């Protein structure tokens, strides 16, 4: 694999994956294709080796543009997506456009061009909520919000191209990811950056929903393992192994930010809020992958990163962000 097309490489996990490829494989050239939506940010790939990184501004929902960008690439790894559940509740059209039609364009282009590997980055949210135990890849999907339903739709289109046309599609389902450069609409960077400014942190419902936290570089190594060692047509769960109730996560964030629990503001629950996500990653472990980051260490370095990098998030928390914030939290 010499030339890899990474879509959504200006987003949170995509940009970490771009850095991971360039640092791990000296012969790899990365073509980074990103629409630069509100969540895309070229600051995220500032300082990467420009000789081995080509950026193209483009939309995966534009069949001509994505087909053109994929020409000459050995593999495509799709991170491009609308990714925030709360925004999908406010309006789902862009989710269907990017997360379903966009994926259709990618597999269709790969079929036409004979691309050797298509990795679709997906999420544990496609399984839906589970109160006891953990989902395995053989379990049926049961998405319950427009974001996870569109991700499941994209996956199913991808798998249909494997079964029908033999397209070498591999899917990863990662758990909740955290680390530097995450857009501050997601719970961790939202709460850290609010806390730094002494703004209350809006905790949904009873705060007892459970998420499994995966450090971003571990997510990238998991995707890379599936890309290089996974079997076509297969799905691989990528789990952090750090299940925490939101209230526990919130207390830890506030403690690391040097603030007190007085900043916690209980607010109305998210509609259809999945209670618990849990996945079993033994299939990916069998390919040699293990997450390396310990939760305490990962949390400490992540909160420190937001404290040290106000230049990155202060300019994001303006304009469109403030409008969204008002729409989402204004009435509370
Ligand atoms: P993000 O929102 O930070 O970034 C998404 C990127 O995709 C942005 O750079 C955006 O500009 C780009 N993009 C959006 N629509 C596009 C389009 N139509 N064409 C081209 N580019 C487009 O997202 P993230 O958190 O980095 O997530 C990346 C992927 O990982 C997504 O597919 C998401 O479903 C999946 N995932 C995320 C998590 C998580 O916890 N963040 C967990 C599991 C899986
Ligand atoms: P989020 O980061 O949006 O990820 P996801 O919904 O994809 O899991 O939310 C993580 C958890 O935090 C989820 O249970 C919802 C909760 N949450 C809050 O309590 N308050 C908030 O303001 C946000 C954004 C999330």
Distance N to C terminus: 50 Å
The count of helical stretches stands at: 12
Estimated helix fraction: 40-55%
- Architecture of the largest domain, CATH level 2? 3-Layer(aba) Sandwich
Largest sheet: 7 strands, parallel
CATH hierarchy class name of the largest domain: Alpha Beta
Low-confidence stretches: none
Overall geometric form? globular
Computed Rg: 19 Å
By CATH, the topology of the largest domain is Rossmann fold
Average the pLDDT over all residues and give the rounded result: 98
What oligomeric state is this?
single chain
Number of domains: 2
Structural class: alpha/beta
CATH superfamily of the largest domain: NAD(P)-binding Rossmann-like Domain
Strand order of the largest sheet: 3-2-1-4-5-6-11
H and E order: EHEEHEHHEHEEHEEEHEEHEHHHH
Percent strand equals 15-25%
The unique ligands bound to this protein are: nicotinamide-adenine-dinucleotide, thymidine-5'-diphosphate
How many strand units?
Answer: 13
